[in-house]
Every structure is written in structure tokens, then in C-alpha cells.
Specification:
Residues 1-29, 225-263 are annotated as: Disordered. The chain crosses the membrane at residues 35-57. Keywords: Membrane, Transmembrane, Transmembrane helix. Among the domains are: 87-226, no CATH class; 262-305, no CATH class. 33% of the residues lie in helices and 24% in strands. The chain is built from 8 helices and 10 strands. It has helices at 10-19, 37-65, 67-72, 87-98, 161-172, 229-232, 275-291, 294-305, and strands at 106-113, 116-122, 127-133, 139-146, 179-190, 193-204, 212-216, 222-224, 262-266, 269-273. Strands 1, 2, 3, 4, 5, 6, 7, 8, 9 and 10 form a 10-stranded antiparallel beta sheet that branches. It is elongated and about 150 Å long.
């Protein structure tokens, strides 16, 4: 076996050659990429902006679809599907209010708008409470002072006439932009007897004469405030009183009346009826009691309070 000038054999030369590093990228030292602090700040800012944008888009979508936000923006009207003047939302809102009514409390007032229901109740000590229901069924109770006003059992309030009355009022108003903004419950009391009498409707964006309407309890007949109740509800007209013959009629004294006076408590005010009006009310009540229906008595009291 031969040796080279350095005294190495051929086998030693081959081993040394295999031990030398190979030229190329891998032969150099490990390379480290250095990231400056400004690049880190930029990356973190981009991530934050992206997250904030997604959050804002989601929040905006939720606010746009939130019924409470829609109500605050005035987007819910009497024609909206969520309007409390419609039958199903109205029943749900009243049920929510009933859940907060205490035992022994009587209803003295009720107002319904497209976005809320306000129920006023009185207890046996004449303390008033106001139960306010929003468009999603949330209830807020607050004290409302004292009152001796007569009240109705909460279970006796009939809400079925509200949607019908709203639809009939719209049908009678020519303006397409007309909006029913509120409906109030009418209560009438006579001789300690309280009955639901009528609904009072407030309308906006119409002529002044069309701003206030009244509807029968069932909502099937409506009239403007300047119309006589007997004109739109002929069933309330009592039959004419029989005219006595001259031979049997008593002599009338100056300043006297053939019928006594009747005091009616209607919608928070007292109305004293005398003469022909008192006689018509008495005839109407007698006929209603003969039929034995509370609705008929209520309609008589409603007509008398006008």
C-alpha cells in the first residue's frame, strides 16, 4: 500500500476526504431571522382591528334585529308584526302584566300602544300601581299614588276588541299614512257596578277631526269623537216612552221633570243625567237586566257617559 508526501496511506486519504464538510448552504452556521418590535406592534394592531370589526358588525346586526332597539327607533308601528295592537302580542303582554298583579287589586286603567302596555291597578287601601310591559314582555312596576276610582277585576277585561277597532278605524280614515298610536280602556260605573264600556283610540298624521275615535267593546263599530253614539250603534237607542193620554197625564208643574236624576261615573268624571236622558238610561238598563247580560248593561252605561 503506497503513501503520499505526508506519509498517509490511501485508506487514510479516503477517510479524510469523507470527513470534510460539503460546500453549500447547509455548510454554513445556523441563520436566525430577527423580527423588529415595530413589526410585532403592526401585527398585533392588525389582529385587534380585525377582531373589533367583527365585533362591531355583530353588535350592529343584533341591534338592528333587537325589538327593544327597534321600538326606541320608532320602527314598530300599529302595522308591524310585533305591534301590541295585534291580537297575539297583546295577549302575551297582558298575561305578563297579570303575572305581577297582586291579590285583591282592581284595574282602573289600561293603555296599549304599538310598543307597550300600561296597566293601572288599585288595591283595597286605594294605593295605585302602574305595570308597564315592553314589546318583549318585560314588566316594570312603579307606585302611582292613591285613588278612589272604581275598578274592574283583571279577569273581566276583554281585549278582543282592540285589533278589530284598530282595523275599522284605519278603514274609515282616507290618509294612507295614518297611524293608531294608542288605545285606552273605558270604564263606566253606576250604583257601584263597574263595566267595561268602550275603547278610545288616538290617531296621528290625520286631520284634527280624525285624531280621536271611540269603539264598542267588541271593536266592531267605531265612531269619531264628534259623532253621536246612537248614530253608529242603533241597538243602544231605547224605545220611545209611551205618551200618556191627556185624560190620564198628570199636570206638569213648572221646573219639574217626569224622571229623576241619575249620576254616572264614566272615565274618571261624574255625569249627572236628568229628564229625558235619565229616562232613556233607565229604560236601557231595565231591558239589559231583563236579558241578563253584563255586556248590554255596559253598553247602556257607555252611551250615558257620552
Amino acid at each position: 500500500m503506497g503513501t503520499d508526501a505526508f506519509g498517509r496511506s490511501s485508506d487514510e486519504r479516503d477517510a479524510g476526504a469523507s470527513a470534510r464538510p460539503v460546500d453549500g448552504p447547509s455548510a454554513g452556521p445556523d441563520r436566525t431571522v430577527t423580527v423588529g418590535p415595530w413589526l410585532i406592534v403592526l401585527l398585533l394592531g392588525a389582529i385587534s382591528l380585525g377582531g373589533s370589526s367583527l365585533f362591531l358588525v355583530r353588535a350592529e346586526r343584533e341591534n338592528r334585529d333587537d325589538p327593544v332597539q327597534q321600538a326606541q327607533r320608532g320602527e314598530i308601528t300599529d302595522r308591524s308584526a310585533r305591534s301590541l295592537l295585534r291580537a297575539r302580542p297583546l295577549r302575551a303582554a297582558y298575561a305578563a302584566a297579570l303575572g305581577r298583579v297582586r291579590e285583591g287589586e282592581l284595574v282602573t286603567g289600561l293603555t296599549v300602544t304599538p310598543v307597550g302596555l300600561a296597566l293601572q291597578v288599585r288595591d283595597g287601601r286605594a294605593f295605585l300601581r302602574r305595570l308597564e310591559v315592553d314589546v318583549v314582555g318585560g314588566v316594570e312596576a312603579r307606585d302611582a299614588g292613591r285613588s278612589e276610582a272604581d275598578g274592574l277585576l283583571p279577569s273581566r277585561v276583554d281585549l278582543r276588541g282592540v285589533p278589530a277597532a284598530v282595523a275599522r278605524v284605519r278603514a274609515r280614515i282616507p290618509e294612507a299614512a295614518a297611524r293608531v298610536t294608542g288605545v285606552d280602556l273605558g270604564l263606566t260605573a253606576i250604583d257601584g257596578r263597574v263595566a267595561q264600556s268602550e275603547w278610545r283610540l288616538a290617531v296621528a298624521d290625520v286631520r284634527p277631526r280624525d285624531e280621536t275615535w271611540f269603539a264598542r267593546r267588541d271593536g266592531r263599530v267605531v265612531r269619531r269623537s264628534d259623532e253621536d253614539a246612537a248614530l253608529t250603534r242603533p241597538e243602544l237607542r231605547p224605545p220611545p216612552a209611551p205618551t200618556p193620554s191627556p185624560a190620564t197625564a198628570p199636570a206638569a208643574r213648572p221646573g219639574s221633570s217626569s224622571a229623576g236624576s241619575v249620576t254616572v261615573f264614566s272615565n274618571g268624571r261624574r255625569v249627572r243625567l236628568t229628564g229625558a236622558r235619565a229616562r232613556r238610561l233607565q229604560v236601557c238598563i231595565e231591558e239589559a237586566r231583563a236579558r241578563g247580560t253584563d255586556d248590554a248593561v255596559g253598553r247602556c252605561l257607555e252611551a250615558a257617559g257620552r
